[in-house]
Design goal:
heterodimer, A: 116 residues, mainly beta, 49% strand, B: 112 residues
Chain lengths: 116, 112
């Protein structure tokens, strides 16, 4: 186990609704990244938060937004849900922005979102 | 943009070696990674290689990098049934852990 936790484990929503997913980073980690993994695909980078500020964003529309709190936990918010938002949402934490030899990225188990 | 490609499936017999291949397009990649994903679980970092290296060995895992051909491979020696999982190749175009670009994954099935 990595020490990165996500909640909820599963979630079912309908089109147009809004959803909030949560991630608690590993102790001592100040950087959280969010990824979307559609069925049968590799994860796609959504955005990253470092010390409560957004620090990079992938090719996702503004209805995907996030927050990082002073304890470095994070939320992913998705507004106006679409069917294609159905996916596994993964968060990963690291203790900084350095090299993987010192700042290994640890992934949580993910939240499976289904949009009907 | 970055593109990472992998074959979708690989089956091997228990005890044989597995070789999972990956090609990527971004010549500025600084680090290349292999992750493992078991059913219902998140991604587990197996190993990584810096782009100025040709090979890295870590116990049963050997990573080979051909930077000229932008080809990365992961060899698993003495493959066990517990190695059955999806393996993802990923690249990072800069130092740091953000902006990882993943392939579509190779599903490895180990036959007892």
């Amino acid at each position: 186990e990595t020490g990165v936790t996500q909640s909820p484990t599963h979630l079912i929503k309908t089109r147009g609704q809004q959803v909030t997913l949560r991630c608690s980073s590993q102790s001592g980690h100040n950087t959280v990244s969010w990824y979307q993994q559609a069925l049968g695909q590799g994860p796609q980078f959504i955005f990253q938060y470092y010390r409560e500020e957004e620090n990079g964003r992938g090719n996702f529309p503004p209805r995907f937004s996030g927050l990082q709190f002073p304890n470095y936990s994070s939320e992913l918010n998705v507004n106006a849900l679409e069917l294609d938002d159905s996916a596994l949402y993964l968060c990963a934490s690291t203790k900084g922005l350095g090299s993987p030899s010192t700042d290994t990225q640890y992934f949580g188990p993910g939240t499976r979102l289904t949009v009907l | 943009g970055e593109d990472v490609e992998q074959s979708l499936f690989l089956s091997v017999r228990e005890g044989d070696s597995s070789v999972i291949n990956c090609t990527y397009t971004d010549s500025s990649s600084t680090y290349l990674y292999w992750y493992k994903q078991e059913p219902g679980a998140g991604l587990q970092l197996l190993t990584y290689i810096f782009s100025n290296m040709d090979m890295k060995q870590d116990q049963r895992l050997t990573v080979l990098l051909n930077k000229k051909d932008k080809h990365l491979s992961l060899r698993i020696a003495d493959t066990q049934t517990g190695d059955s999982a999806i393996y993802f190749c990923a690249e990072s175009p800069q130092t740091g852990a953000n902006n990882l670009f993943f392939g579509t994954g190779t599903r490895l099935t180990v036959i007892p």
